[in-house]
Please model this.
Amino acid sequence: MNISILAAGAGGMYCGSCMRDSTIAHALRNMGHHVTLIPLYTPLRNERDVGATREVFYGGVNVYLQHASELFRKTPRVLDWVFDRPWLLNLAGRAGAQTDPAELAGLTVEILKGEDGAASKELHRLTDFLRDSVRPDVIVLPNVMFLGMAREFRERVGVPVVCELTGEDIFLEAMKPADRDRVRGIVRARAKDVTRFVATSRFYADKMADYLGVGAASIDVVPTGLSPDYFAPPAAGGAAAAGGGGSGGKRPLTVGYVARQCPEKGLGLLVDAMVRLRGLANMWDVRLKVAGYAGAKDAEWLAALKQKATAAGLASQVDWAGEVSIDAKIKLLDAVDVFTLPTTVPEPKGISAVEAMARGVPAVLPNHGSFPELVAATGGGRLVRPNDAEALARGLADLLRDAPVRRALGNAGRAAVTARYTERRMAEDMVRVFASLGGDVAPARGPVAAGV
Model:
C-alpha cells in the first residue's frame, strides 16, 4: 500500500504522539509498504531517523499569521517559504507549547474549519502535494485537531482518511466553556468526514466515541508499540538484568519516572509520595530518578516542587534530569527497581510505562485511564488509587520490599510487551485497519515523488 501519515511536530521536543506516528511509518516500510511521513506545524524530533519529508506543511508561523491577518492568507508561496524555515518553526513551536489552551481556541477553530478556515491556503497546498506527488491509497491524520482536512482529502485526493486519537481531549477541555462547546460542535460535524478512527486504548476509544458523537464500532484500538531498541539486552547490573529485582543491595532501591515534568503527569504527587515513603519501615533511603521535558510554562511550579523536595530532606535522594535520548532513557530504566507514572488525569497512552516493562521493570500505576488495560494485558505492574500520595507510597513500598514479586512482575511485563507491544505488531494492526476499509482503499498506484 501507499500510505501517507501526517504527524504534528512539537517544536523540536520529543512528543509521544509524533514518535508513535514515526514508529508506525518506520515499521510499515519494513513490511514493504510505501510510506510518506509528513510533518505538520514544525519538524519532527525522533529517537531515530525515520525519513520524514524535508518540507513541513501547515507551518506553525504561517498558520498563526493567516489566523491573525487576512493579508497573510493571500501572500505568495515565496514569502510563506521564509516563515517555514525549520529553526523558526522550532522556536515558534516551543513558544506555542507554553501557551494556555484557552488562548488558542480561535486558532483551533480556524484549523478545524478546513477549507472554510483561515488556513485554507495551507490545506490546499498539502492537498495538491498529496494528490499530485504522493498519490496515497490512504491518509492518516495525527489527531482530531486536524479533522478539518478530511473532507478535502476525500473529495480531492479521493482516498479514505483515518484519524488517530492520542490524548487531545486534555488540550480541548482546557479551553473556556464557550470555546470548548464551539470546538466540540465543529469536531462532531467534521468527524463525519473521517472514514475510521484509531485510539491507543479501549478506555480512550470509549471516551472519544462520546466526545465525537460516533459509534464505538467506528473506532479501532491499536496500542502503541516500541522500537527494537527497547528490547536490547540490559547492561550488567541493571534492574532489568536482575529480572526487575534491583542490584542485590549494591545500590539503594530506586523509583523511576520518565514523562513531561508537569502537574498532569503526577510528578508533584510522586514527590509527596516520596516524602511519605521515607517514613515507612526500611524505606528511608529510597532514591528517585526523574527525566522528561520541562517546559517554561511549568518552570515556576517545578522550581517550587524541587524546593519542597529539598525542604523535606530529599535533596540527595532525587536525581533531576531533563529531556533524555533513547540511550539515556534506557540506561535510567535499567537503573531503577520500580517505575511509576502517577498521572492526575486519565492517561490514554502511558508509553513510558510500556517502555519500563520492556526493560523488565514493574510499574505502580493509578487505577484510571489506559493503565488498568495495560496491567491486565501484561501482568507487569500494580494499580493504586489515583490522586492519592499515601496510596502511591504504600504501593511503591510493597514492591520495593519484595524482590521476588518485583522479579515476577518484571518478567511478566517484559514477556508480554515483547510479544504484544512491538512496532511490528502496531504496524500489523494498522494494516488490518486499512484493510477493513474494503473498497474504499484503491489498489496501490505508487507515488510520483514522495519528497523525502
In short: The CA atoms of residues 121 and 433 lie 31 Å apart.
